[in-house]
Design goal:
The protein is an alpha+beta fold and about 210 residues long. It has five helices and nine strands. The radius of gyration is 19 Å and the shape is elongated. The relative contact order is 0.17.
């Protein structure tokens, strides 16, 4: 499906399995019931001046726009060229491997979030560098940004979010155990950037992840 409209959807659509234009995901819409301004009931419908159905307050007319959240992640790389992954200790994807990352806080920059999340989840201090890619997850209402990041300090520190932390050679990434579609594409794009020989040797590397989040 995503290959049918590559110019409309962009490369970031490789990480989603559903069509664009479906509105707010049902799982998210079920929690949007009351206006944050006056407490009145919200309902979807056509609103003057808007080009699509929106969530509007039936009392004060406030429009509750629903926008995706930004997840900031890194692909930490050691001095000898290995990539650091963590085995997730929480859902979604518990027990599977992913890159460190989390939601951007309202009072920090994207780069600051990349450093903070990596430190919190792995114990490593990193210096974010080149942007590896952007990945849309319409199902989860998030956009994931992935930076290549050089490990400059710290040490592996397992924690409730990371049951295990390991540095993998480029040709030894545990593809069958990768948690998320976004992780798969970020790793593929990083390999294409730094180790195209590994991508070629693996025939393109196109395993499917176990968790779609």
């Amino acid at each position: 499906m995503t290959g049918e409209r590559p110019f409309e959807r962009g490369r970031d659509a490789r990480s989603t399995d559903i069509d664009s234009g479906r509105g707010v995901p049902p799982w998210l819409a079920t929690g949007l019931n009351f206006c944050s301004r006056c407490g009145g009931p919200l309902q979807f419908g056509l609103i003057d001046g808007e080009n699509r159905e929106r969530l509007g307050c039936t009392v004060c007319g406030f429009i509750a726009y629903v926008n995706p959240r930004l997840v900031v992640s890194t692909i930490p790389v050691t001095d000898d060229g290995r990539v650091v992954l963590l085995r997730r200790g929480i859902e979604p994807g518990r027990g599977s491997w992913a890159q460190p990352g989390g939601f951007l806080e309202v009072d920090e920059t994207v780069t600051e979030a990349a450093v903070r999340e990596t430190l919190e989840e792995t114990g490593l201090v990193v210096q974010p560098g080149e942007l590896v890619g952007l990945y849309t997850r319409l199902e989860a209402a998030v956009v994931v940004v992935a930076f290549e990041a050089r490990v400059v300090g710290g040490e592996f520190r397992p924690n409730p979010e990371a049951l295990e932390i390991a540095a993998y050679e480029a040709d030894a990434i545990p593809w069958p155990e990768i948690a998320f579609t976004t992780t798969m594409w970020a790793l593929r794009d990083w390999l294409a950037l730094r180790r195209p020989d590994v991508v070629a040797a693996a025939g393109g590397i196109s395993p499917g992840p176990r968790t779609r989040s």
